[in-house]
Design goal:
Layout (H helix, E strand, L loop, with lengths): L15 H23 L3 H19 L12 H35 L1 H6 L2 E6 L2 E7 H4 L11 H12 L6 E6 L13 H18 L7 E5 L12 H7 L1 E7 L11 E2 L8 E2 L10
Parallel strand pairs: 3-4
Antiparallel strand pairs: 1-2, 2-5, 3-5, 6-7
Length: 273
């Protein structure tokens, strides 16, 4: 039999392309993995950061916190704390003013029963209304001897506090025209100043006091009967709540124009001699 001759094999010079393709594929996969590792998911990172903030704040405070959305964690916590501080401050202020009201009612009890003194809480603070007939003679600004005991009892309470105090003089609508008092403005201002000086004598700091004359502009009753006019002739002592206390605020407020600072209006203090 004839011997079958083997076919001669030719060398494949393109086999390197296979290895090259594998290498390129692996290199591409390597860079994809590296990119995925170096890329930061901002959303997940923000959520993680907010969770840490909540955890740290919760460990420092015993208050219960509600879950917050991503991006609101820190700001929401600061707002909650500020609100809680404001509420607590208002609560303490209300308790303090109630204590002042209670103390004044205790020392002024007999006069309150007689209708000569009234004590009540208003928006600006605690108000003590004293009938002018208890303090002064008609058309006069000098305190009667019997009024000293009343003002001393008021001063005993006020000397223990630190709030500012406004003393207002009020008259009825009957005009007055004398050499000493050309109008009810001068009479009401002089009466308020007399009460201020007496409170200072009994230990109330003069820096906390202001005297204001209101004339007949704030009646509590219509000036239609002698009884109603008598109620309108009075002296009001207002123990100011902190939010209305002008003496605890800055004397100057910023001026948007950038020029000289604007002065806040201040009630003129009564002269002390």
């Amino acid at each position: 039999m004839a011997v079958r001759r083997k076919r001669a094999e030719h060398d494949n010079h393109e086999r390197w392309l296979i290895s090259y393709a594998d290498f390129v594929t692996l290199l591409f996969a390597f860079f994809v993995v590296m990119y995925s590792i170096s890329s930061v998911n901002e959303g997940k990172y923000k959520t993680f950061s907010d969770s840490l903030n909540i955890a740290f704040d919760q460990s420092a405070s015993s208050s219960n916190l509600t879950p917050v959305q991503p991006g609101q964690g820190r700001n929401q916590i600061l707002v909650d704390k500020s609100t809680a501080q404001l509420v607590e401050q208002q609560r303490k202020t209300q308790e303090k003013m109630k204590a002042v009201d209670k103390s004044l009612r205790q020392v002024m009890g007999p006069l309150i029963v007689q209708g000569l003194v009234g004590v009540h809480q208003a928006r600006r603070g605690v108000v003590v209304e004293i009938s002018a007939s208890t303090l002064f003679k008609e058309g006069d600004e000098k305190l009667q001897p019997g009024a000293l005991e009343t003002l001393q009892q008021v001063a005993m309470v006020l000397s223990l506090e630190n709030q500012s105090i406004e003393v207002e003089g009020h008259t009825d609508d009957v005009p007055i025209k004398t050499a000493k008092f050309p109008s009810n403005w001068e009479l009401s201002s002089a009466r308020a100043s007399s009460v201020v000086r007496m409170l200072i004598t009994y230990g109330v700091s003069e820096k906390r006091l202001a005297a204001v004359g209101m004339a007949a502009n704030q009646p509590v009753e219509a000036n239609d009967t002698p009884e109603h006019r008598a109620k309108n002739r009075r002296v009001s002592i207002t123990i100011l709540s902190p939010e209305f206390d002008r003496f605890n605020q800055a004397d100057e407020v910023p001026n948007p124009s950038g020029k000289e600072p604007v002065k806040e209006p201040v009630v003129e203090k009564a002269p002390v001699k």
